[in-house]
Amino acid sequence: MPSIDPSALMGPLWTLLAYVALGWLAARRLAVDPRPVATLLIYLVAPLTFFRGLVLGGPTPAYLLLTLAAFATASLLAISVHRLTRRRFAPQESALLAFSAGTGNTGYFGLPVALVLLPPEGVTLYLFCVLGITLYEFTVGFYLSARGQFSVAESLAKIARLPLVYAFLAALAVSGLGLEVPVAAMEGLAVFPATYTLMGMMIIGMTLGRVSLREVDARFIGACVAVRCLLWPLLALGAVVGLGAIAPLSRELAMAMLLLGVVPMAANVVVVAMELGIAPAKGALAVLVTTLAAPLLIPFYLTLMMRLAGL
Predict the structure, then answer these.
(1) Tens of pLDDT along 232-248?
(2) Per-residue pLDDT tens over the stretch 245-286
(3) DSSP sequence for 221-253
(4) Can you give the residue ranges of every domain in the chain?
(5) Which of 36, 138, 157, 192 could form a disulfide with 49 if both were Cys (CB 3.0 to 4.6 A apart)?
(6) Residue 270 in contact with residue 288, Cβ under 8 Å?
């Protein structure tokens, strides 16, 4: 039976947790406010990171179909969870839970793991799936989150101001028209992926640095963990088995899809919650729980899912 070595995941995990610890120290000892950091991530760092990645990735119709499929899956899952939970949780909590349901830590955590577990072709397939989930975060996901605090018109206005969608369209235009981005510009953009990861994980620590015990909500955290650690693995496994029954599925694509299903909760849950002011402390606690469980759950889940999928 194929298996995943847990030690292969410890490097990425400890690096990310060290970033969380730095954020905690920044909030506790330096009184750093995480809200401007969240704004920088959403309006500057994330758009430039994904513009660079898409230009370098060379989008093809097949790759963009993966992006569309990931976007549609994340959106449908988030809308379904929102409808199921809006009468059981407060509006802000329901909105944040719905946002988290459609995404995972596919970038900050998942990408380093993908580089360890997948060949180059698998990493490319994984990245275009991640792009679809990221587009969900800053469109449908952002809208659902904003609806916990704002009206429909206000929520749509906030989405219209998000630059990531325009960065995506700009990258498609550059690739489709065969334009060349100056080498100096691409070299300058090379610093943003690492900055994206560093700031994204630090903001979790900054938020945790302001958390008090009264903000621990076991019911909310349990719901987030159930969606991320139970529903998503089942969904990923079902997709691989179902698609494999219809047409042959490459091992690289199957592994990329399975990895999407087992990463921890997205750090962007905290980023968006901070930007919109919707229970960021509760989101940070839920993200931390799933991140700490990741080195145990990911090898177990992937080994079991690979066996069930016949990989």
Answers:
(1) 999 999 989 988 888 78
(2) 887 888 888 888 999 998 888 877 877 777 677 667 777 788
(3) HHHHHHIIIIIHHHHHHHHHHHHHHHS---HHH
(4) 35-176+217-309
(5) 192
(6) no
